[in-house]
Structures are given as C-alpha cells and as structure tokens.
Amino acid sequence: MKYQRPKGTADILPEESAKWQYVEAKARELFKKYRYHEMRTPIFESFEVFSRTSGETSDIVTKEMYDFYDKGERHITLRPEGTAGIVRSFVENKLYGPELQKPVKTYYIGPMFRYERPQSGRLREFHQIGVEAFGVDNPTLDVEVIAMAINLLENFGLTSLKLALNTLGDKESRENYRQALIDYLEPFEAQLSDDSKERLHKNPLRVLDSKDKNDQEIVANAPSILDYLTPSAVEHFEQVKALLDDLGIKYEVDPNMVRGLDYYNHTIFEIMSDSKAFGGKWTTVCAGGRYNGLVEQLGGPETPGIGFGLGVERLLLVLDAENGGLDLPDPLDVYVVGIGQSVNAETLKLVQSLRHQGFSTDRDYLDRKPKGQFKTASRLNAKYTLTLGETELADQKANLKNMETGEEISVSLADIYRDFAALLA
C-alpha cells in the first residue's frame, strides 16, 4: 500500500516551513503594536457553534463542514473558520466583564477545514491568521482594523492592493432589503440555480454570493442594499468612508459584496491583490467585517465585534510570485571540523557550548574526512570554522578560520568556552 497525504492537504517541508514562520512572526510583531493578544481555541467545536453563527444556508454549513459524531454521540465539527470559536471562548470565559479594557483585542493563527474542491491557494486543510475585537461599536475601530490588515500586507512587501468596501446595515436595514431582494428575484426563480432557489426565501442575500454564472447575471441588476439603509446605518458607513479618506486609504464601494458568512452586518471589506500568482486577476487575500449580534447568538450579552481573516496559503502564493519569492537566510555562524575519533567528544562539547553562547553551530556526524567537512562548511555558508585534531586537543587549542577572508588563528579551548564572541572582536 502506498501511503499518501489526504486529498486537499499539504506537507509543509522544512524550507517552506521557514516561510510560514516568517509570515507568522511578522503578523505577531504587528499585532503587538496594535495591542492584540493571541487566543488559542480547539480545532474542533460543537456543530452548533458554526451552524448557528455561519448560517444554515451558507455553503460552509450545507456543503463544506467536516462534521461527525464522536464516541459519546456528540455532534462535532472541525472548525471551518476562526471567528465563531473565538466568540464561543469569549462568552464561555466571560471576557466581556466590566473590569476588562474595551475593546478586547485578540488574534489567532491556525488550521481550518472545509470540504471543497482543492485548488491553488484553497485546500481542505488551510490556515488562517485572524483578528477579533469586541466591545466597541464605533466606526473608528472598523477603520483601524481595515488599516491594520492593509498594514500587515504592506509589511510583506505587497503594493498592488485594492480595498473593496460595503455595508450590510443594521437589523432593520437587512429586513427591508431582504424583502426587496425577494421581490426582485421571485420572477427569476425558475432560472436560478438549485442552491439559489433553496436560499431565495430562507436567506436571499446568499443568492448575491452565488458562484453560478447565470445567477450572477440575474443579480447584476438587483436592488442595492445601500438604498435600504436606516439613517443610523448610513451614518456609520459614512463615518467609515470619511475616516478612510482621512488616513489616505483608497477604497471602492461594492454594493453586491455580502461575504460568505451570515453573521456580518454594517462594515464588510475585502482586500484584493492582482498578483501574478492569480494570473493578474483581482483575488481576495484578506477579508472581514463587523458582526454585532454574534456574541448574543452564542449566549453572551450584547457585545459588538469586528475582525478579519487572512489565508496563509494564498498569501504565500502571492509572496512567492513577487520579486522572485521569499529569500530567507539560514545563517550558520560556526562549523566545527573534527579530525579523528579521539576528538569526537570535545567537538560535541564545543558545538554545545557555542550554541549556549548564542551562536548557530553545526558539526559532522558521518565521520567524513577534513576535506569533506570543509566542503560542507562552505556549502552551508558558515562564517567561521573551528578545526580540532589530535594535536590541537593535546595542546588544548583549535584553529579558528574566517571563511570570508581566509584569515586563520590558533585559539585556546578555554577562551572558546569562556567567551567565543571576544575572539571575534
């Protein structure tokens, strides 16, 4: 039997893993500046956490969730997205208490799971970096979250980005728009895809998000939610746009954008790239929005929230396509060359000591001749070599060579163990 990874998953090998670590480190560094702190929630949750929040007519719930009954007959789901689990934890751990600073700012990094057709940048096990902020219903926070998302992408060197913006309004706005959309779509019901027919009366906004080309042609002339906003929803959206203008952040309002999850309201956004990785077509790499009401759905008090999610696989595709890809150095400070079996223990002590002193260090483990060891040191771009043979061991010395200049000196083992950095000064 040939063992292979499951369809829609990927092995992240050491060279690629370095890129993942780079991306995660850059994200953590930026989130710290914005005062966001990490939360880690379980990879699986109760089915209802996602069915209740994502929407029973959404593709995620109806087609894509990995759900099963465990040995205790509990209905379990591998998380398809990050927000609902964070909200569940926020409620369960009472992070809404009056003594806590508002907004409560969190972020997460980890794997998600959706059963869909695998393609470039979209796998069945994929990874997201996301942020969530709770407790403030202020357009200023909407804009700060959007600015942070753009800031993050720009920190990776991405320059050709486009911000698409929309609002889904408040509850009253959505109810007014829902009926208007049903009235518009009903004459086309026979022409709609089966999924859209199912959603027409249950959740007509989902029809706007259909990937069916015929559906897309039908909804192209659908009424805009912007014409059904309440005065307070209009005011919220106008403040968001004005603050983006104040920050010099360009945007395009897309009234047909609804996002793929039912919990969104008010501000929603997508940040797109026209990278060569996507054939020059504008493709979403980061998206999010406001979800006032989600905390209440999972049993918490009335608490507004906003956040975004970014797909790591998709981001790495963009980074690999830009400027020749990520070139991450893997520096080796010292390679210890040992000549003869009698120095084996001492060379092991040397590499351990140098590592404890803060130097990246390696040595030979295959009993190769000195010439082979020096070739390895050169191939690994070692800055220095330390050579120890039987004679040097007897004299309690080693030969220190600068691989760039070729300069070589004899140094005492005691000085190496005491303060190797001083020998390089």
UniProtKB/TrEMBL annotation:
Belongs to the class-II aminoacyl-tRNA synthetase family. Pfam families: HGTP_anticodon, tRNA-synt_His. It comes from Ligilactobacillus apodemi DSM 16634 = JCM 16172. GO terms for biological process: histidyl-tRNA aminoacylation. It is found in: Cytoplasm. L-histidine binds at E81, G82, T83, R114, Q128, E132, R259, Y263, Y264. Residues 23-329 form the Aminoacyl-transfer RNA synthetases class-II family profile domain. HAMAP family: His_tRNA_synth. The gene is hisS. One of its GO terms (molecular function) is histidine-tRNA ligase activity. This is Histidine--tRNA ligase. Homodimer. Its EC number is 6.1.1.21.
